[in-house]
Design a protein that fits this description.
The protein is α/β, with parallel strands linked by helices. 32% of the residues lie in helices and 23% in strands. Strands 4, 5, 6, 7, 14, 15, 16, 17 and 18 form a nine-stranded mixed beta sheet that branches. It has a six-stranded mixed beta sheet with strand order 9-2-1-13-20-19, covered by helices on one side. A three-stranded antiparallel beta sheet has the order 10-11-12, with no helix packed on it. The two termini are 29 Å apart.
Length: 433
Amino acid sequence: MQVLILGSGVIGVTSAWYLARAGHQVTVVDRQPGAGLETSFGNAGMISPGYSAPWAAPGVPFKAVKWMLAKHPPLSIRPTSDPHQYRWMVQMLANCTEARYAINKERMMRLAEYSRDCLMDLRTDSGVDYEHREQGTLQVFRTQKQMDAAAQDIAVLERCGVPYEVLDRDGCVRVEPGLAASADKIVGGLRLPNDETGDCHLFTTRLAAKAAELGVEFRYNCAIDELLSDGAQINGVRLESGEVLTADRYVLALGSYSPKLARPLGFDLPIYPVKGYSLTLPVADDAMAPVSTIMDETYKVAVTRFADRIRVGGMAELTGFDDTLKEKRRATLEMVVSDLFPQGGKVAEATFWTGFRPMTPDGTPIIGASSLRNLYFNTGHGTLGWTMSCGSSKLLADLLSGEKPALNAGDYSFDRYTNHKEHQHHGHPASAH
């Protein structure tokens, strides 16, 4: 079939790869001049199935209030006049129960674990190189209370069969020798040995080049105006230039911008742009720099090692599509990397970046068919876009090709946000649970 993918971030490009491998004729459209130039550009550099957890968790509403008064808050909320912001926040609060958290985390873990397996195969098949390392994630705790609270996550890791190690202070320094300089600031850590790291932008651009070799056509500098529909299916995509592109199937993979195009068609995708920041700095001293990813539980900031650079990423702001680079946020990132790895990187030479992560209220992406005959979603991956990209796109390619997917597709379908009965008379199959 002819498939038109809207979006050339890591989700759009992996979708293109798997659909082309399945024998489809694929075109990718994006307003940017190249692949991976928005949220995929400066992310934290982690492939972290073991760290996959929804932000909507028991205790988060209470913490959010406390964070409002903190100097370096991991989360900040600036009310806007957008009603979707409030609706999304209400939906997220509804997912902060123990029961919802357990269901959502398990769905995310399953997809992320499957995705890592898909990535390993993709690496073998494509030979794509992106400065990747396979040395795990170390979540560091600055207080005993954080260490004790990790028990709940460990229970889920055990249920999903994910290997982990609980480390004391010396154990943390053993796996990350650069922490020796700041060991007195931490009490211990949780290590996820199967997690990986790498440069997502490099991965996306290099995979796009490999996909082009398979015959995928990339059309950059093409802003999308609207999806043309007759109520039963999509009949084309109008670009801002006025040109209309047509295909047999359409895949919406525009991250935070997906709801804007879906809304006129009657789909209220509950995706909110959660703003994050990152710094990229040169390594100053190899022995004092991180080996892999360190996740600072207190500030929710990740410090990740690339070949000769360090990526520091984190924070969440709910402020709509405001892309201002705030110095206050830069100060937090600089503080965390300097605190944990005082001699590791050249902070003065850091570049500062921001992007919007497309977050759903339950943390799980929206993947699969819509009630329109030929429209598919692959969007809403939040902070785990790269972690979940290969698995999500393989799942999408299987569904679109009529193959049996490896996961229960109903867990990721848009149907979970809608009334099932309302969609059945559209000829849309009810999710099999």
